[in-house]
């Protein structure tokens, strides 16, 4: 980093501190996504919002200035980075959850596919009282013999309606006299409690359009409509490369070593975002191992964690440069997570570099990986929505902040312990609130990003 770069970094810290003081908020280290405690206001002049952030080039690199991308713009770039989803494939229903339909779902049968009883009771023909047939009709059996006027037959919910039935009498609405004849205790309306064939759809009716996300309910509808497989877009393949010599995969932190929080967190989240996670590899801080892993990977998306900044073992930038990768986003004006990056490794292969701080990684996941995977998996963007904020949230002077919130009675309640290295808040959050530069006051409407764990980690077992 150059001397001038260092001065700009100092200015930014002053501006951040001043912004917090102006709002009457205390500067709490690691709880604001900013860089620390306030310095005297006389230390320097304000840095304009458009000033480029400095970045060293890593070990042995030359210093350069680069402009971080505004948060909304970064999401847009990520959404457009991948050119198209994969080629549609035929997928068995038990593997289709979370995929997107590549063809409309058209009914392969009438639903119901025969006239069926909606209730347990009797199928009756004509006005009562009725003589009752000895043998009843159960679901799953072939067509029963037709009824004649004045006749009834015991019937179960879901059983086929005998021909010439005029209504179904519920079991609680009929009584037998001493001669075994059936009487209705309620008025019987013609056709009552009969579900006619084709009531829900006729064979060939369109049920769901192309592009529908396969939810559990879609699986149920597809099965009911006669499907064993559906045509769907394949999951983009993602590989996770966890960087850092300091990471442990078990036990408690000790001797300067810490637990890897991202290895367990990212795969289910990526899956919830539509990806198939093909590998999670821990590479330490070995630059050559990173280079080889990137050269060898055939994943659609490589996600790295850590090593995005300019520390002595932050290898991501130099290795990307060495590989001739195209940096599409190099830093984002968002806190936490501002060193996040997006690169094109090959024509159809992208890399999202998530910062190592765990909440910063979540920020990068939702800012860059989510829009990229959305395009690759053919999903449509959720309708944006906003909610009023419950309490004041201090802002960064120039950057967007993403703050974990819980949603309570149509308000977003910001959570504490939201520093870049902390997961306590996001672990109980429903969503992230998008806080504009300068912060937000109670009642102010903020865009809300739902956290994508509706389907996280669901492994469907069919036995
Ligand atoms: N001189 C500057 N230093 C830093 C800046 C800056 O602007 N100038 N930005 C800071 C910010 S903000 C972030 S975020 C981090 C990003 O750093 P890296 O992406 O290079 O990540 P690391 O240095 O490897 O790690 C940062 C931090 O996170 C811990 N970590 C890493 N991986 C994991 C993991 N899998 N599970 C749990 N914790 C992890 C790591 O031990 C570090 O404490 O850079 C700042 N520095
Ligand atoms: O603000 Mo960093 O991106 O600590 O997380």
UniProtKB/TrEMBL annotation:
Class of this enzyme: transferase
Pathway: Cofactor biosynthesis; molybdopterin biosynthesis
Stretches the record annotates as Disordered: 24-67
CDD domains: MoeA (cd00887)
Pfam families to which the protein is assigned, alphabetical: MoCF_biosynth, MoeA_C, MoeA_N
Catalyzed reactions: adenylyl-molybdopterin + molybdate = Mo-molybdopterin + AMP + H(+)
One BP term from GO: Mo-molybdopterin cofactor biosynthetic process
Domain of life: Bacteria
Keyword terms: Magnesium, Metal-binding, Molybdenum, Molybdenum cofactor biosynthesis, Transferase
MoaB/Mog domain mapped to chain residues: 239-375
InterPro entries found in the cross-reference section: MoaB/Mog-like_dom_sf (IPR036425), MoaB/Mog_dom (IPR001453), MoeA-like (IPR038987), MoeA_C_domain_IV (IPR005111), MoeA_C_domain_IV_sf (IPR036688), MoeA_linker/N (IPR005110), MoeA_linker/N_sf (IPR036135)
Cofactor(s) it depends on: Mg(2+)
SMART domains associated with the record: MoCF_biosynth
EC number: 2.10.1.1
Comp. bias regions, Low complexity: 35-56
GO molecular function: metal ion binding; molybdopterin molybdotransferase activity
Entry GO terms, CC: cytosol
Function (record text): Catalyzes the insertion of molybdate into adenylated molybdopterin with the concomitant release of AMP.
UniProt similarity note: Belongs to the MoeA family.
Protein name in the entry: Molybdopterin molybdenumtransferase
The species this protein was found in: Streptomyces apricus
């Amino acid at each position: 980093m150059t001397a001038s770069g260092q001065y700009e970094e100092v200015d930014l810290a002053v501006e951040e501190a001043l912004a917090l003081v102006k709002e009457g908020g205390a500067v709490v280290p690691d709880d604001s996504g900013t860089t620390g405690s306030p310095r005297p206001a006389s230390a320097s002049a304000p840095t304009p919002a458009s000033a480029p952030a400095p970045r060293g080039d890593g070990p042995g690199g030359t210093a350069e200035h680069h402009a971080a991308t505004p948060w909304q713009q970064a999401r847009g770039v990520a959404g457009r980075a991948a050119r198209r989803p994969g080629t549609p494939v035929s997928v068995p229903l038990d593997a289709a959850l979370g995929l997107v339909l590549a063809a409309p779902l058209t009914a392969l049968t009438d639903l119901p596919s025969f006239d069926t009883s909606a209730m347990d009771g009797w199928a009756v023909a004509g006005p009562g009282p009725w003589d009752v047939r000895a043998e009843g009709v159960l679901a799953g059996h072939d067509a029963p013999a037709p009824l004649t006027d004045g006749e009834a037959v015991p019937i179960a919910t879901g059983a086929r309606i005998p021909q010439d039935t005029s209504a179904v009498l519920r079991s609680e609405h009929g009584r037998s006299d001493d001669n075994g004849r059936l009487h209705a205790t309620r008025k019987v309306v013609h056709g009552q409690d009969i579900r006619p064939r084709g009531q829900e759809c006729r064979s060939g009716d369109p049920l769901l359009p192309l592009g529908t996300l396969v939810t559990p309910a879609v699986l149920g509808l597809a099965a009911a409509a006669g499907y064993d497989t559906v045509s769907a877009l394949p999951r983009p393949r993602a590989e996770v490369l966890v960087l850092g010599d300091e990471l442990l995969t078990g036990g408690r932190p000790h001797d300067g070593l810490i637990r890897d929080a991202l290895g367990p967190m990212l795969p289910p989240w990526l899956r919830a975002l539509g990806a198939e996670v093909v590998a999670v590899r821990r590479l330490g801080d070995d630059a050559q191992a990173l280079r080889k892993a990137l050269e060898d990977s055939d994943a659609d998306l490589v996600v790295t964690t850590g090593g995005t900044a300019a520390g002595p073992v932050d290898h991501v930038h130099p290795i990307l440069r060495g590989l001739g990768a195209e940096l599409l986003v190099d830093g984002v004006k968002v806190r936490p997570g501002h060193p996040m990056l997006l690169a094109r490794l090959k024509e159809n292969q992208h890399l999202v570099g998530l910062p190592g701080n765990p909440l910063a990684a979540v920020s990068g996941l939702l800012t860059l990986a989510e829009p990229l995977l959305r395009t690759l998996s053919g999903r449509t963007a959720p309708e944006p929505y906003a909610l009023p904020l419950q309490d004041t949230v201090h802002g960064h002077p120039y950057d967007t902040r993403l703050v974990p919130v819980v949603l309570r009675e149509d308000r977003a309640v910001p959570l504490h312990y939201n520093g870049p290295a902390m997961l306590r808040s996001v672990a109980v959050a429903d969503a992230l609130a998008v806080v504009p530069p300068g912060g937000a006051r109670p009642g102010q409407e903020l865009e809300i990003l739902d956290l994508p764990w509706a389907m996280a980690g669901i492994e469907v077992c069919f036995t």
